[in-house]
Amino acid sequence: FSAAACLAVLLAALGAQADPAVELRKDDRICFIGNTFAERLRHSNYFETLLAAAYPDLGLTFRNLAWSADDITLQP
User: Fold this and answer.
1) Handedness of CA 45, 51, 53, 56 (dihedral sign)
2) Which end of the chain is flanked by fewer CB atoms within 10 Å, N or C?
3) Could you tell me if 71 and 32 are in contact, meaning their C-beta atoms sit under 8 angstroms apart?
4) Of 24, 74, 63, which is closest to residue 41 (Cα–Cα)?
5) Distances (CA, A) of 37 to 5, 40, 44, 56
6) What is the rounded distance in angstroms from the CA atom of residue 51 to the CA atom of residue 71?
7) Which runs of consecutive H residues, i.e. helices, occur in 1-76?
8) How far is residue 23's CA from residue 20's CA, in Å, rounded to a whole number?
9) Is residue 75's pLDDT more than 70?
């Protein structure tokens, strides 16, 4: 799967829920953490764009703290 395909599946799953697991509020800050998948969001930030477009009145901000090989059991 490409990152765009995974993102489309994720957004479809979120849209299908009757009661969302995450409630976004005005001026929320969204932080991405993780390994290579989350790091690649930095290069193609479609997810941030989709969230900001879906909730334009919330003034969301984003921060990407991910890096490759980030793993709790590995300390390079």
Assistant:
1) negative
2) C
3) no
4) 63
5) 13, 5, 11, 25
6) 27
7) 3-16, 36-40, 46-54
8) 7
9) no
* Tokens of residue 73, six digits: 């059991």
- pTM of the predicted protein model: 0.59
Residue that has been written with the tokens 């930030």 in this structure: 45
Judged against a pLDDT cut of 60, whether residue 29 lies above it is answered with: yes
What tokens does 37 get?
A: 């998948």
In 3D space, the residue among 23, 43, 42, 20 whose CA is nearest the CA of residue 32 turns out to be 42
- Residues present in the chain in total: 76
Token representation of residue 64:
């990407």
Cβ atoms 64, 41 nearer than 8 A = yes
